Structures are given as structure tokens and as C-alpha cells.
Amino acid sequence: MNIKTLKQFLALAETLNFGRASDECHISISALSRNIRHLEDELGVALFNRDNRTVVLTKEGQTFLKYARDTSRQWNLIRHELTDNSDQLSGEISLYGSVTASYSFLYELLRRFRIAYPAIEIKLRTGDPEHAIAHILDGKEDITIAARPANLPRGLAFKPIAISPLLFIAPLEQQVPNVPTHTPITTQEWATIPMILSESGVSRTRVDEWFRQHDIAPRIYAQVTGNEAIVSMVSLGFGIGVVPKIVLDNSPLVDRIKVLDVKPELEPYDIGLFTLKKSLKNPLVDAFWNLMKEGA
User: Residue ranges of the HTH lysR-type domain (predicted)?
Assistant: First the structure.
């Protein structure tokens, strides 16, 4: 077993696709398949179940994945410590955030980071921000950007970037009779309106609590993944939604949306960076983390 094989395993475990993993590792599919087989033979267990259509981690593969991530992280640390005799940091860090976060925050952060540390490679992945903390805890990413939950998991570090109000939004023009463009007043009126909400996460937790406090049983029309999808469905007149202002500000559909003046207001989003506290011992992660302090 060597570090290259571990990195190939990690690429396949994260993509679950031999084609994409082989491209990421710059080797052929047959070479990747052969190396994974050798690794499985060395361990004495199957790490993946695969057929002509799917690749899935086995239970043993999921256990080995945690080891592989930790080992890869430690390898990067010790290699930097032993071989770097200059003042310039080099290596690779991974970041994860939503498309909106990339537009609003990461662009400027990455621009400054690239100027300050040109030898550090940045691997950026975008996706649902509700998965950001899980990606950190699972070791998939070094740093993520998302909204701070009410209770921060143990071992997680958080650095605030900005505050974004959480807004009730409606279509600019009424397209369906029971989807108003004005702010609902009575409990009965709220209960008849189709709501388009996030499946889970900070936004869903806060809007559910808001409805409970007002003794309203909301009519849930759709539960979606991603705030951008909520804006899209609301603009088409399917219902009223709840999204952070930062999402609306960056949406191409902002001119088709009306913000409702709902009182009391929802608790705003506290947006920031997340990483494991132990990851701050990594000089590359620490450099990105402290760049926020310098730019504050």
C-alpha cells in the first residue's frame, strides 16, 4: 500500500465512478481498477461492490474510507514539515460551498488567497449548503462555508463572515388564486397557502419554529434541496418560500420575486467558515483561516 493508491481509493470512493476517478488521478480506468484490486487483495476484503452500472462502497470500504482520509491528511502534513525549507506554503486544500456562496464570498477570498499563497492548489466543490457541516465531520473537505446551526458539533471551528436575513418571498404577480403577493395576516390565511421550503437545515428549522410559535399548521407544497430551487418555484407562482437574502440578491429571478413584510422576522443566517479544530494544525488550512482575519 502506498499514498498514491490511497488517493486513488479516495477519488473512487468520493465519485463512485471509475471514469471520473481515473481522470482525477490521471491514470487509465484499467490501471485504476487494477490498483483497487491489489489494495483489496492486500487488505483481504472487498472495498467496493461494482457491476457494469454502479459502484458502491461496502461496509468494510466505509470503514477504510475514514482511515484513508486521516492518513492522506497526515501524509500531507508530514511531507510539508519534512521537505519544505522555504517560507512559501505549498500543497492542496479542499473547499465546499453553495453556488451562491461562491459568488458572494469565495470569489474574493480565493482571489486574495491565490495572491498570498500561489503554490497552494485549491479544490472547490459546490453543492447544497445543508451538507456542508457533514462534509467537514466526515473528512470529505478541509473547509466549508454555510450557515451556523443553533448547536455547533464538538470539534468544529466556526469563523463568521456575514449576516443574511431570512426572508419570506412570493411571486411578483399572482398566478394562482391561493398564492398571494401580499403578506398573509390571519392564521387561517397562512394555513391555506402552499409553502415551498428546504428539506432540512437551518432555514427549515427556523421556519418550522416560526409556524409553531404562531400555532400555524403550514400547507407544505414542496420540500426541495437548494435555496436556488425555492426561488425558481416561487417565481413560477407555485407558492411562498423562505430563503436567505444573499440567495435572492444573487438570483437571476430576483425581478420576479416580492419580499413579504412578515413580522416577527425570522432569525437571520450567520454565515461563515467551518473546519475541524484539529485541521487548524494544518498550515494550509490555518493560512486560509487567518486570511479571513486579515481581511476583516
Answer: 1-58
Q: How far apart are alpha carbons 95 and 108 in whole angstroms?
A: 14
Q: What is the pLDDT of residue 296?
A: 44
- Which amino acid makes up residue 276? L
C-alpha 25/C-alpha 22 separation (Å) is: 5
Do 215 and 282 form a contact (C-beta atoms < 8 A)? no
Report the candidate in 271, 228, 235, 225 with the shortest Cα–Cα distance to residue 249.
228
Can you give the pTM of this predicted structure? Answer: 0.71
Give me the CATH number covering residue 23: 1.10.10.10
Three-state DSSP at 110 gives: helix
Q: Give counts: helices (H), strands (E), the chain.
A: 12, 12
**Looking at residue 139, what is its pLDDT?**
82
Condensed to tens digits (0 to 9), the pLDDT of residues 231-240 reads 999 999 999 9
- What does the alpha-carbon distance between residue 226 and residue 199 come to, in Å, rounded to a whole number? 9
Q: Which domain holds residue 16?
A: 3-60
**Shared-domain flag, residues 173 and 229:** yes
